[in-house]
Amino acid sequence: MARYAPDSFSSPSVSQSTPLEASAPPHANEALTGDALAGSIAPLAARAAVLLSVFSGLAVGALLMLALAGPAPERLQQDAELAALVRTMVLVKGIILLAALSLVTWRLSRPVARPQLAGYMSSLGLSAAAVAWMWSLNAIPVAALLFYGGLIGCFYTASRDPLLLRLEPASKRRPRQPA
After folding, report:
1. Which of 74, 89, 91, 102 has its CA 20 to 30 Å from the CA of residue 27?
2. CA–CA distance from 154 to each of 1, 3, 109, 112 (Å)?
3. Does residue 80 register a pLDDT over 70?
4. Please, what is the end-to-end C-alpha distance for the chain in angstroms?
């Protein structure tokens, strides 16, 4: 019978990696090192940029609402309860936008690469503009397409972000300072 020899399965030429690094896609391993984040944006500046893009999106949406203002669709003019329902649905879309914004803001507590930051900024700004435009009850289908397009863009950017759900092991976290 052959005996188990622990050194027989490993060789010096094979690199030892952690299970997280081994299961990560090839582009994620680059981001796990400090080299990929060398040209990254600091967390405070990244958060400020995303918030600025969301507020800019809200302003653009409000300008679209005013520029394209016209009478609400006839069906909404006749039924006040339907108009209230549609506005409630717009508020729910605003809550969805706030949830996406809070996840992205949490992610931006660590350095982020410029392309990912640009993706987060443009997608959340587009969704914010669409929510503001929807409030006017004009062209709701177009605004809804823009809103969901922005959310899908944010999801796409987040799916390509290797540091989004990467949590540090408890042993590497800094201990909390007593208050």
Report:
1. 102
2. 57, 54, 17, 14
3. yes
4. 62
Q: Find the DSSP H helices in the chain.
A: 19-23, 26-32, 43-67, 74-78, 80-107, 114-134, 140-159
pLDDT score recorded for residue 125: 95
Identify the pLDDT of residue 172.
63
Q: Flag whether pLDDT at 22 surpasses 60.
A: no
Backbone phi, psi, residue 170, to 5°: -60, -30
From residue 170, give the alpha-carbon distance in Å to each of 7, 22, 36, 173.
30, 20, 24, 5
Average pLDDT along the chain: 78
